Amino acid sequence: MAKLHGLAVALAAALATAGCATLVPPLPEAQPQIPQGWPVPDSTAPAVAGVATEIGWHAVLVDPRLERVVAQALDNNRDMRVAMLNVERARAQYRIQRADRMPAIGANATLERTGGDAPVTDTYSASLGLASFELDLFGRVRNLSEAALQQYFAQEENRRAAQISLISTVTGAWLTLAADQSLLAIAGDTLAAQEESLRLTERRHALGAVSGLVLAQARTQVETARADQARYRGQVAQDRHALDLLAGAPVAAEDLPQGFDDGLVAMTAVPEGMPSDLLLRRPDIQAAEHSLRSANANIGAARAAFFPSISLTGSAGSASSDFSNLFDSGTRFWRFVPQINLPIFQGGALRANLGVANANRDIALANYEKAIQTGFREVADAISLSQTLAEQRAAAERLLVAATQAERLSKARYDAGYDSYLNLLDAQRTRYAAQQGLVGARLAEQANRIALYSAVGGGWQAEPTPDVP
């Protein structure tokens, strides 16, 4: 018993000293070389109370139908499910790696039967033992565990990135459907007006009031509008299918838009002097940072491989030739097998492995800096476009008013015989193009607001950074 007590004390001391050293180098500081901030133009979007980083997508999407579609997509989208399962897999992989930091203890019972020229003999044994456990004197096992943990955190950030991307994509698809519905309605109204104009032109042609050229031009307008109507009808069908795919299930009819207007989506006004370090909230940048930390921890593990490693194996139990006497006095035994591994010659494998770890760390650092630069560019682009797109939308509204008035005056002059039909056709085409242009300008402005919201990392965190599992 004294020997067993001494073994336990020695094992406890070894475990206490394990992992006291680490060979992980300092984490290199990223140098993305981006400005400290960007100029924010006067916002034309309706403001939502609060700071941009504290506003969720429920506050950005003001249409309840769109909110329900986004919620449905978050629950049913298959890409989102894959992202969540990737997180679960990374968590399980981390737990596997973390288990190496703790000794594995198991029970074992055996029957050994031997025979030959000698009589057959049986030996029974039962023991409780410690499997080969590495004393983490230089932090190799701990660094591998830390690398797996950072990979788990990176996968969680990738899930957040997929969630923000899905919200943006669903919103864009919903708006595109609304825009195409408006274009289909415009084409339908134009077709009805052109058909009515064609009927009047046919009567006037029968009376000899207009030439055959005017009649052919009227028919051209009708067929052009009919072709546009068919094209937009196909686009609406495709938009509906794309939205159903993103939502993971058919979207209810009551949640579909009925046309595009300027109040479908509202985004919070960009705060003045928004700092560029807001980019660090972006999940793709945080994922790149976790990947950098993981690669840096792998360097510590690669360095620790140059040093000796000590593994412990031990067991204690009873052995007897008679099963009924297996646990009687005098049958007990113990076994303690420490093993030390001294790397002497590895053919350069250890140094090459360290070189790979260093290169992976440098690659991760470059990817981290690039993620910051890319994020800054996306935010800067969206901010720069916010003012110009608002101006384009306002100009498109004024253009439609002017084109509608010009068409009305041109028709009055044509009916009075002062202008040719060619001038009326030109006015009608201008008004039709102005209607389409206004829908496109409104769609572009709303899409840019969603792009800006995504570029700053969604402006929210659906969940806090996960705790260590």
Could you describe the 3D structure shown?
- This protein has helices spanning 2-17, 57-60, 64-76, 78-99, 140-206, 212-247, 283-304, 349-415, 421-455; strands at residues 105-114, 121-135, 309-320, 332-341.
- Strands 1-2-3-4 form a four-stranded antiparallel β-sheet, with helices on one face.
- Strand 1 and strand 2 form a beta hairpin.
- Mean pLDDT is 82; it is low at 1-19, 43-52 and 460-464.
- Helix 3 packs across helix 5 and helix 5 (140-206) runs antiparallel to helix 9.
- 60% of the residues lie in helices and 10% in strands.
- The protein has 469 residues and is α+β, with helices and mostly antiparallel strands.
- It has a single domain (24-101, 137-307, 350-459), classed as Up-down Bundle (Outer membrane efflux proteins (OEP)), CATH 1.20.1600.
- It contains nine helices and four strands; from the N terminus they run H-H-H-H-E-E-H-H-H-E-E-H-H.
Total of helices: 9
Round the mean pLDDT to the nearest integer and report it: 82
Here the CATH topology equals: Outer membrane efflux proteins (OEP)
Order of helices and strands: HHHHEEHHHEEHH
Contiguous low-pLDDT stretches (5 residues minimum) are: 1-19, 43-52, 460-464
How would you sum up the major sheet?
Answer: 4 strands, antiparallel
Question: Brief overview, please?
Answer:
The protein is of the alpha+beta class. It contains 9 helices and 4 strands.
Topology:
Elements: H1 2-17, H2 57-60, H3 64-76, H4 78-99, E1 105-114, E2 121-135, H5 140-206, H6 212-247, H7 283-304, E3 309-320, E4 332-341, H8 349-415, H9 421-455
Antiparallel strand pairs: 1-2, 2-3, 3-4
Helix pairs in contact: 3-5, 4-5, 5-6, 5-7, 5-9, 7-8, 8-9
